[in-house]
């Protein structure tokens, strides 16, 4: 999803939240001082949203969060938030090349090879015809995109969250965090390193079904890069959907 799509998505969240405010009214939902969360995240694709150049990367994460209310008013709550991702899976495209070599007259041979993860994978079929004395060699390369998954863990110790209209059952919120991840091998390409920095920002809605329990639905722009601490730094931009079960008081 491009940056314009993100802007539309954020606008839709806020319009939805404010439009149904009149229907929800006061629900007894509280402005929590301490909020704990358990969440899942998923992104099916990456593209050049802002800074990242690595395409077709997927992200799946399971994590937990803690938010401490710093300031409260009738408009909203400002919270410090920290997030941990003990399970984070990142997926990179790998180019698979099926080659067929045919000698005329002569024999036919086939082979299959895979490359290291690449910045962008574009499947296709490529043909070459080479002439030799008395023989012709036809080479056909059929390139497809396979996939590898890499296990990682992440921690975002710096973050702010602002929730609007405290005391109502449905509350819009905006969030931004920053941190780092460690992976078992270099991502998103072989010479990019296994230690990367992260930051994200986005918006969503929080729905309270009791005074102390709620569920948050968010969409965030999520960026991963090594800040040029490795030989390569293509960076990854993902649009991440996030669902959090939150509780506290």
Q: How would you describe what is shown here?
A:
- The protein is mostly beta strands and 249 residues long.
- It folds into two domains: 3-92 and 148-248, Beta Barrel (Porin), CATH 2.40.160.20; 93-146.
- It contains two helices and ten strands.
- It has helices spanning 3-19, 21-24; strands at 34-43, 58-72, 76-104, 108-117, 124-132, 135-164, 170-183, 195-208, 213-225, 236-248.
- The chain has an eight-stranded antiparallel barrel.
- The longest helix has 17 residues, at 3-19.
- The protein is elongated, with a radius of gyration of 24 Å.
Question: What is the count of distinct domains?
Answer: 2
Percentage of residues in helical conformation:
under 10%
Indicate the CATH class of the largest domain. Mainly Beta
Query: How many E strands?
Result: 10
Global Rg: 24 Å
User: Averaging pLDDT over every residue, what do you get?
Assistant: 89
Structural class, from secondary structure content? mainly beta
Q: Which residues sit in consecutive blocks of at least 5 with pLDDT less than 50? A: 1-28
CATH fold title of the largest domain: Porin
Which CATH architecture of the largest domain is right?
A: Beta Barrel
Q: Report, as a whole number of angstroms, the end-to-end distance.
A: 36 Å
Instruction: Enumerate the strands of the largest sheet in spatial order, edge to edge or round the barrel.
Output: 1-2-3-6-7-8-9-10
Query: Based on CA inertia axes, which overall geometry fits?
Result: elongated
Number of H- or I-type helical stretches: 2
- As an assembly, this protein is single chain
The sequence of SSEs as H and E is HHEEEEEEEEEE
Q: Major sheet: size, sense and barrel closure?
A: 8 strands, antiparallel, barrel
Beta content comes to: over 45%
């Amino acid at each position: 999803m491009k940056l314009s799509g993100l802007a539309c998505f954020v606008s839709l969240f806020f319009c939805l939240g404010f439009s149904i405010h009149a229907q929800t009214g006061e629900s007894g939902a509280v402005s929590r001082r301490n909020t704990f969360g358990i969440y899942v995240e998923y992104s099916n694709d990456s593209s050049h949203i802002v800074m990242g150049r690595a395409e077709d990367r997927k992200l799946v994460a399971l994590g937990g969060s803690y938010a401490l209310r710093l300031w409260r008013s009738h408009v909203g709550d400002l919270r410090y938030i920290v997030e941990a991702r003990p399970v984070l899976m990142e997926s990179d495209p790998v180019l698979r090349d099926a080659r067929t070599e045919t000698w005329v007259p002569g024999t036919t041979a086939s082979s299959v090879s895979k490359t290291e993860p690449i910045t962008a994978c574009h499947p296709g079929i490529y043909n070459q015809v080479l002439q030799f004395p008395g023989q012709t060699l036809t080479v056909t390369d059929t390139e497809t995109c396979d996939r590898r998954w890499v296990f990682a863990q992440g921690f975002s110790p710096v973050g702010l969250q602002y929730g609007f209209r405290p005391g109502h059952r449905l509350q819009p919120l905006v969030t931004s965090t920053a941190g780092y991840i460690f992976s078992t091998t270099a991502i998103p390409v072989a010479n990019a390193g296994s230690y990367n920095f992260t930051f994200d920002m986005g918006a969503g809605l929080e729905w309270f079904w009791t005074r102390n329990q709620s569920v948050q639905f968010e969409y965030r722009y999520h960026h991963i890069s090594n800040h040029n601490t490795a030989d390569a730094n293509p960076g990854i931009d993902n649009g991440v959907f996030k669902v959090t079960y939150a509780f506290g008081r």
